[in-house]
Design a protein that fits this description.
The complex is a heterodimer of chains A (255) and B (235).
Chain A (H helix, E strand, L loop, with lengths): L5 E12 L2 E12 L3 E5 L6 H7 L10 E9 L2 E2 L7 H7 E4 L10 H11 L6 H14 L3 H4 L12 H13 L5 E5 L7 H14 L4 E5 L3 H7 L2 E6 L2 E7 H6 L4 H7 L5
Parallel strand pairs in A: 3-8, 3-9, 6-7, 7-8
Antiparallel strand pairs in A: 1-2, 1-4, 4-5, 9-10
Helix pairs in contact in A: 3-4, 3-6, 4-6, 6-7
Chain B lengths: L7 H34 L2 H32 L3 H34 L8 H25 L2 H31 L4 H33 L20
Chain lengths: 255, 235
């Protein structure tokens, strides 16, 4: 593998919540145009590590991050980096769909407006349409863009949130259990969407569903007690993992 | 690693299907031994019993495959569990084929019993069958006790069976050249010997599945091939 396919490089990352050492010595290279799944039992640190990638942990006072995380070889914890700009580049989708209490159009237009991505109304219209198409929800909402985003079904709301996340043309998309509040059909739609997003983005998804990790990702990282235990090709992890702890976890045995 | 699943019904499913593999293996071992014995002692009743016994082996294969499909559908097995399910599907197919060869041996025993014996060939075939039966027993022991070492040892033993087959092949050629009336019985005996040699290959496949189950990797060494009769001529 050549280094130019590496999108995110983490070295010796430690995260502390006060005295609690939540992430221990994590080293990982996440590839571009690849879906990487983070799996592991609750409290293993997978979401914490995900939130390091767009500095969401900065918002927590007691949280301290050390080590080195680089996106395209730029240290994202450098003083010169503006976290707001970083989050435009590193989009995030959360567990529960959280549309703003605004129209569908304004939900998607929100980011591009803040970041001044459109000079004219027609430019903004184009951005909104393109994002909704990428979110695989355009056909369902194109005739009611003025309707409130909160009036959509759960699965539609989540795809709206994905459209909102991609509207600022991010390069990395972080997803924290994006399907846990969705029914199987909506889940399948979001998974199909994730596979399409892979053409353009580096996608990192935290999931409690091992089957989902197996279905959508090319690389899988298994976290346990704050350590990154194993990282590798998804099909290898799910057929013959190297570490007995990985094996225990994915086969549903007591670790 | 704990060996127990959190869902204990999953453990029961996996244990159940392995128990059926062992049961099937026991029936196949009997079929090999009794088939060869009926051939050597020209015991047509025993041969008939071996032929009839194949039905139970076939039924077990079907049951094992149904159970494996059920586990895949309901439990979505991964890693060691996935390899276990793949192994029972493949091993049951290997055992079923060995059972068919034993049945075929018993069929030919009926025909051969009507003809005069050709020297001690049936004794040599029985010894070859004994070697294969021993390999199968060890392969199944290796499987159930997760002993990769023993499985690899079984794989290496297939070469001896191939050599026994080579020797028989040459003997049969000689007998047939010596006396034309030997041709019919020797043709049957040769098919039996070839089938026993094939049994050895299926036992080897069982041992290879065992290695894959335990290590997650197929035994990579090219196993020794000693059956060179396909290159032989009568010169």
């Amino acid at each position: 593998m050549t280094t130019d396919t590496i999108k995110i490089a983490a070295r010796d990352v430690q995260v502390y919540y006060g005295d609690n050492h939540a992430i221990k010595d994590v080293n990982v290279d996440i590839e571009d145009k690849t879906v990487t799944a983070f799996i592991g039992p609750s409290g293993c640190g997978k979401s914490t590590f995900l939130r390091c990638i767009n500095r969401m942990n900065d918002t927590i006072d007691v949280c301290r991050v050390t080590g080195d995380i680089r996106i395209d070889d730029v240290d994202i914890y450098d003083r010169a980096i503006d976290p707001v700009q970083l989050r435009a580049k590193v989009g995030m989708v959360f567990q529960k769909p959280n549309p703003f209490p605004k129209s569908i159009y304004d939900n998607v237009a929100y980011g591009p407006r803040i970041h001044g991505l459109a000079r004219k109304k027609s430019d903004l219209d184009d951005i909104v349409e393109r994002a909704l198409r990428r979110g695989a929800i355009w056909d369902e909402v194109k005739d009611r863009l003025d309707a409130p985003g909160t009036g959509l079904s759960g699965g539609q709301q989540q795809r709206l949130c994905i459209a909102r996340a991609v509207a600022t043309e991010p390069e990395v998309l972080l997803m924290d259990e994006p399907c846990s509040a969705l029914d199987p059909i909506a889940t399948a739609q979001v998974e199909e969407l994730i596979d399409e997003l892979r053409q353009n983005y580096s996608v990192v998804i935290v999931t409690h569903s091992m089957q989902q990790a197996a279905r959508v990702s090319q690389k899988t990282a298994f976290f346990h007690l704050g350590h990154l235990v194993e990282f590798g090709e998804t099909d290898k992890i799910f057929t013959s993992p190297e570490d007995p702890r990985t094996e225990s976890y994915i086969t549903g045995r007591i670790g | 690693m704990s060996n127990q699943h959190i869902a204990s019904a999953f453990d029961r499913d996996l244990e159940g299907v392995q128990a059926q593999i062992m049961k099937m293996g026991g029936l196949v071992e009997d079929a090999i031994r009794l088939g060869a014995q009926s051939l050597e002692t020209r015991d047509e009743d025993l041969a008939a019993q071996v032929r009839a016994g194949d039905k139970a082996i076939d039924q077990l294969e079907e049951m094992i495959n149904e159970q494996a499909a059920r586990v895949i559908a309901l439990r979505a097995p991964t890693a060691i569990d996935l390899r276990l399910i793949l192994s029972v599907i493949k091993i049951s197919a290997n055992l079923e084929r060995i059972g068919d060869y034993a049945k075929n041996m018993a069929k030919r025993t009926g025909v051969l019993a009507q003809m005069p014996p050709v020297n001690d060939s049936t004794g040599a075939i029985r010894r070859m069958a004994q070697a294969v039966e021993g390999m199968l027993k060890d392969a199944l022991d290796a499987y159930i006790s997760r002993d990769a070492e023993l499985a690899l040892q079984v794989i290496s033993r297939d070469e001896e069976v191939d050599q026994m087959y080579n020797a028989l092949f040459r003997q049969f050629l000689t007998y047939m050249m010596e006396d034309q009336s030997n041709i019919t019985p020797c043709m049957h005996l040769h098919f039996i010997a070839k089938n026993v040699e094939r049994m050895g290959d299926h036992v080897t496949a069982v041992a290879e599945q065992t290695v894959y189950l335990i290590t997650g990797q197929h035994p990579d060494e090219q196993r020794p091939k000693a059956d060179k009769t396909s290159l032989n001529s009568t010169d």
